[in-house]
Structures are given as structure tokens and as C-alpha cells.
Write a structure and sequence with these properties.
By secondary structure, the chain is of the alpha+beta class. It is 28% helix and 25% strand. The protein has 4 helices and 15 strands. The strands form 4 sheets. The chain has a 5-stranded antiparallel β-sheet with strand order 8-7-9-14-15. Strands 1, 2, 4 and 5 form a 4-stranded antiparallel β-sheet that branches. Strands 3-12-11 form a 3-stranded antiparallel β-sheet, with no helix packed on it. Helix 1 packs antiparallel against helix 2. The longest helix is centred in the first third of the chain and has 22 residues. Bound molecules: magnesium ion. Magnesium ion binds next to loops.
Amino acid sequence: MIVIKSAQEIAFMRQAGKIVAITLQELGGKVRPGVTTGELNEFAEDIIRKAGGIPAFLNYQGFPASICASVNNEVVHGIPGLRRLENGDIISIDVGAFSHGYCGDAARTFPVGEISEDAKRLLAVTEESLVRGIEKAVSGNRLGDIGAAIQTFVEDNGYNVVRAFVGHGIGQKMHEDPQVPNFGKPGHGPRLEPGMTLAIEPMVNAGTDNVAILPNNWTVVTDDGKLSAHFENTILVTGGQPEILTRLS
Ligand code: MG
């Protein structure tokens, strides 16, 4: 069942989204060669708590940290730790926070120092695919319109969307109905209505869309070892243009 949020619930989700957006913005200033993913995690948890939020990922199904930090060929669910970032890496950071019992969830892939032209293009295409998907999150459209827009843009640029992991409804729980795939058919799936809140999150692989899970049972990596990028926002379907809840301003 897809929950339609009340005005009060939406107000709480705006607060949660703002905490996530601030955290990602601050993290962007910390990403540089030499920093460890564990240090980024501590920094993020501190920001979330000082802003009055509760980290959504910490202890979620046993996940041991407040952010997911996925480097290079890691797609999502990387566990922060002792890994030290190097010039030329890319790092996908996923942040979730609760405020007043409601959740915000967003991700960005950041360049570490100077990255290759290929990596820059992957980041740009993935970020733009999220924009294309969000544009379709309009009342009266179908869920499949979102996935189709993302998939088409990504594939037209020579990359592949991950199929094994998808976006999701979000609210009092981090993962609610519906699933929001990054692929699909226009005109298919549930009809979008004002008050629906969705986490749209294209995961884009430079090579094959096939993925594997490392022995830590969390970290998802590309099968072929090529780069992967991840951009995510939590959005609200309105009567007009979608509202991005995990964006500042
Ligand atoms: Mg998510």
C-alpha cells in the first residue's frame, strides 16, 4: 500500500530531508585524498545528531554505520572503515536520517581530487538521469514513467542501470511501497498521486549491470570491476512539479 502523507507528515519529511541535505553538503567539503571513509562516517553522524536527527542506517538490519560509503567499483552499501581515499577515486555516499519519526534519504557520488574524464562523464550522466526521473514524478503519471526516463537516458549514454537494487517509497519507514526501479515501461505501474513520497536513486554502472555482494554481506560491487555511481533524492509528488525534500533552499 502506498501511503499518502498528510500536511503534517510532509512537514516532518521536509525537516528530515533538510538534515540529509545539510549532511551531504558538509560531507562534500570533507571528501579529499587521505581521508578515511570511517572519518567521513563519524563526521556525518555528528552533523545528523547536532541537527536533531537520528541516523537511519545505523543498526538498520545490522548495518554498522550512519552512512554508506561506496568507492569506485562499489555500487551501494559500502561499509565505512579504514579505507583511505586516493586521488582519482570516486565515492558514493548515501545518507539517511529520521526527524520526528519521518525519514529522508539521499546520495551523491563525489570526485576525490582529480578524476578521469570517463569518471566525470559517469557522474554527470548519473546525476542527470536522476533529474530526468524526478521530472516524471508528476501526479497522473505512472511509476514506470520514472524508471523508463532514467533507463533511457542512461542507456543512450552507453551505461547500464543496476536492476538488483531499486528506489522506494519512504516515510515513517525508510523502505515503504512502492519499489521504484530505475528501469521500466512508460505508462505502466501505479498512478502517482499528490502526497506520495519516493526515494528515487539511479545506480549506474559504466559496464555490465550485473553486481555481486562481498563476503561482509553488505557491499555491492560491479561484476566486471568497472566504476559505478549513485545519486538519490527523496521527493514529494504534488499537484504540480515534484518537490525535492533532500535539497537545500
Ligand atoms: Mg534509498
